[in-house]
Structure formats: structure tokens, C-alpha cells
Specification:
The complex is a heterodimer. Chain A is mainly α. In chain A, 69% of the residues lie in helices and 0% in strands. In chain A, helix 1 runs parallel beside helix 3. Chain B is mainly alpha-helical. The termini of chain B are far apart. In chain B, helix 1 crosses helix 2, helix 1 runs parallel beside helix 3 (41-58) and helix 2 (27-39) crosses helix 3. The chains are: A mainly alpha, B mainly alpha. Chain A binds chain B through residues 17, 21, 24, 61, 93, 97, 100-103, 106-110, 113-114, 117, 120, 122-124, 126-127, 130, 142, 144-146, 151-152, 162, 165-166, 169-170, 173-174, 176-177, 180-181, and chain B through 1-3, 8-12, 14-15, 18-19, 21-23, 42, 45-46, 48-50, 52-63. The complex binds zinc ion (ZN). Zinc ion binds at residues 10, 13, 36, 40, 42-43 of chain B.
Chain lengths: 191, 63
């Protein structure tokens, strides 16, 4: 196989990952399909500019991130309306704490988990936990933690207050923490 | 720990741990959070876990 054919077959193999990431961030299958198509076209058209300095996969994911940002900008009105509606519902995590604000069940000791970051099973579990976050919460959380936008930018683009933004990110992090603990660290501790 | 203007409950500590990842905390907030974390092993755990989850999220596109 020559280099070009090799890159094309790698691109085809990357499609499921691209789709998974686009769906996680956009929370809309049709938008995600558009973004993945645009990404794959761009990856083929821009192939001459791929210099092989980064990994091909990293380069393609970089294109995907740009396409996702473009898509979110185009859909900003819908995204912002959904976010405002969903962020009104209150979730206080009261069930996790006693009346003095202490955790009812203490958080587990996760040990020194650095090495799990390179394992597929851990990443698959993490993706599943992010997927379980409700739509707007997941979008805001990934904008912050995956696309690495500043919180002030996110609030401004989505027309939500800074307080609301912080509450949403707090809720997302707490939910993710519970999910990862239940589905990974508690199981390891029990095993 | 009894709640007071200086002793914040774990619930508030968790919120401040999260907000500290999104904005610089005020001096008073930071002091109360540090004080709480110095005395509460459970919340120190949560702080490390939040930090770990942030690093893990940076790798989410590799799986
Ligand atoms: Zn505490």
C-alpha cells in the first residue's frame, strides 16, 4: 500500500471514533453526522498539508474539533435555548450529604490511577459516563474539559450567567465522579 | 466539623473545588477551602479526583 492509500484506510478506521466524539459534544446525531462528513472531506483535501510531525489521528481529531466549533456556532441559538431551559432545573445533590453538609458515603480512595489513562477499558468507561450526562450539561462540560474553552467564553456564547455556568460544570463533575467511582474504582476495590 | 463563617461544610468545599477549576477563587474562598482541605481527608480525595478527571478528559479523544 502506498502512503496515501494507507492514510485513507486509517481515516476510514477513525470514523467510529470521530462519530463518538462528535455525538458526545454535540448531542445531536444529525449534526454529528454532518461534522464527521465535513471532517473526512477536509482530511482528504488537506492531506498534502499533513506533515507527519504529529500522529495522523491527532491531526484528524484536530480537524474534527474545528468542525465541531463551527457547527456549534451555526447552531448557537438552538444550543443556547436548550441550555437555558435545562439549566433552570435544580439539582442540589442533597441526597449525597447529611444535614451538616457531610458526604453520607465517603468518596473512595482511587489510589494512584495515572496508568489507567492509557488503557482502552478505562477510556471506554469514561466516554460512557460522559455520555450519561444530560444533553446541555454534557455539551458545556466537554466545551470546558475537552475543547478547553474558558468558562467566561462558554457563558457568553450560550448567553447564560456565570453562576449558571459554574453550577452546570459543578453538577457535571460531581455526576462524572460518581459514575467513574461506581463503574471503575468501586469494582476494582471489590475485586 | 461545625459550620461557621470559617468552617465550611464538605458540600461547599466540593463546590469551591469545582469553581476553582473555572475561575480564580477569592482570597477568602481560597483560605476557607485550604483550611477545610487541611482538616478533611475526604475532601482532599475529591480534590485529587477532580484533578485526575480533568487530565483524563484531555485524553478522551484517544479511546
Ligand atoms: Zn470535607
Amino acid at each position: 500500500m502506498n502512503d496515501v492509500a494507507q492514510l485513507d484506510s486509517t481515516l476510514a478506521e477513525l470514523q467510529p471514533l470521530l462519530m463518538k466524539l462528535a455525538r458526545l459534544q454535540l448531542r445531536n446525531d444529525a449534526w454529528a453526522e454532518d461534522v464527521v462528513s465535513e471532517t473526512m472531506v477536509a482530511a482528504i483535501e488537506k492531506r498534502p498539508s499533513f506533515e507527519g510531525r504529529s500522529k495522523y489521528r491527532t491531526w484528524v481529531v484536530g480537524i474534527l474539533k474545528h468542525k465541531i466549533t463551527d457547527q456549534l456556532r451555526r447552531r448557537m441559538r438552538e444550543v443556547s435555548t436548550e441550555t437555558q431551559m435545562e439549566s433552570v432545573e435544580t439539582e442540589t445533590f442533597d441526597e449525597l450529604y447529611d444535614e451538616d453538609g457531610r458526604r453520607l458515603s465517603p468518596p473512595l480512595d482511587w489510589g494512584d490511577p495515572e496508568d489507567v489513562l492509557s488503557t482502552q477499558q478505562f477510556m471506554a468507561m469514561l466516554q460512557a459516563c460522559v455520555d450519561e450526562l444530560p444533553g446541555s450539561l454534557g455539551r458545556v462540560f466537554l466545551l470546558r474539559e475537552w475543547l478547553e474553552y474558558e468558562t467566561t467564553e462558554i457563558c457568553k456564547e450560550l448567553s447564560i450567567t456565570a453562576t449558571n455556568c459554574h453550577v452546570m460544570l459543578f453538577r457535571a463533575r460531581m455526576r462524572l465522579r460518581e459514575c467513574v467511582e461506581t463503574n471503575w474504582f468501586a469494582k476494582r476495590a471489590a475485586a | 466539623m461545625k459550620e461557621s463563617w470559617v468552617m465550611i461544610p464538605c458540600r461547599t468545599a466540593h463546590r469551591l473545588i469545582s469553581e476553582g477549576m473555572d475561575r480564580p477563587l477569592g482570597l477568602g474562598e481560597r483560605a476557607r477551602l485550604r483550611l477545610h482541605l487541611a482538616m478533611c481527608a475526604m475532601c482532599s480525595r475529591v480534590e485529587h479526583q477532580m484533578d485526575f478527571l480533568r487530565r483524563a478528559m484531555r485524553h478522551i479523544d484517544e479511546g
